[in-house]
Design a protein that fits this description.
It is built from 10 helices and 5 strands; from the N terminus they run βαβααβααβααβααα. With about 230 residues, the protein is α/β, with parallel strands linked by helices. α4 packs parallel to α7.
Length: about 230
């Protein structure tokens, strides 16, 4: 597990005012990376805590990575994170984020380039972890951003048919657009997550909308002005 965006040193330097803390796996780790263009974390500077796990937990049992976490253990881990005394001591406003869908075609290509043989993820298996995240949020009263459902609907999923991203259907162009390697979000995918996050904040916590937040320090018109010397003085 990685805690990205704010290191311990940064927390000490930032002080006691409210901050957005991203807690998750490599999907949040890569949200700081601007090499491909837009990045989610730099665009999200003020706010609360978001929790995103499940993309790695949803690896198939026995797959080469060894990252598989059984579904019930995954759900219990989310509950333990949310209820942990160190978390509750902050009285945080929490947001759970479901893992996004996977694109089996791109995952297979990415794995082959790394010399990894065999299927590690499937669209159907990942769906179970997204559903589990939703259930944990409902049970504990924690709001959930359903990134999986949003992407699947935009990918034109029809109930009763194989999921977009599955190799049982043709390759899905939308998932190619929002997933960089079949698993991690692309800049377009992070833009989607930011849009969903802003919608959630405006609907559930309007006081935390960017326009409603006060400046930590005075803006430049209100800041104290330094005394200036005449240009002719030494």
């Amino acid at each position: 597990m990685v805690c990205t965006l704010i290191s311990l040193f940064a927390i000490l330097m930032l002080g006691q005012y409210d901050q957005f803390l991203l807690f998750g796996d490599s999907l949040f780790q890569q949200s700081c990376n601007q090499d491909r263009g837009f990045a989610f974390a730099p665009a999200l500077q003020d706010g609360r805590r978001m929790i995103l796990f499940g993309a790695n937990d949803a690896c198939l049992p026995g797959s080469e990575s060894g990252q598989h976490v059984p579904l019930e253990v995954y759900k219990n881990n989310l509950r333990r994170i949310i209820r942990h005394p160190s978390v509750q001591a902050q009285s945080p406003r929490l947001i759970l984020v479901t893992p996004p869908p996977v694109n089996e075609y791109a995952c297979e290509e990415s794995d082959a380039a790394k010399g990894i043989v065999g299927t590690r993820r499937t669209a159907e298996h990942t769906m179970a972890y997204a559903d589990a995240c939703q259930r944990v949020g409902q049970d504990l009263g924690v709001p959930v951003i359903d990134l999986w459902d949003w992407c699947i609907r935009i990918a034109k999923y029809e109930p009763g048919h194989p999921l977009p991203g599955s190799k049982r259907v043709e390759r899905n162009g939308y998932l190619d657009e929002v997933l960089a390697d079949g698993l991690h979000l692309s800049p377009a995918g992070y833009r989607t997550l930011l849009e969903l996050t802003m919608r959630h904040i405006q609907r559930v916590w309007p006081d935390q909308s960017p326009d409603a937040l006060a400046f930590v320090y005075p803006s430049w018109p209100d800041a104290p002005k330094a005394e200036t010397q005449d240009a002719g003085e030494p």
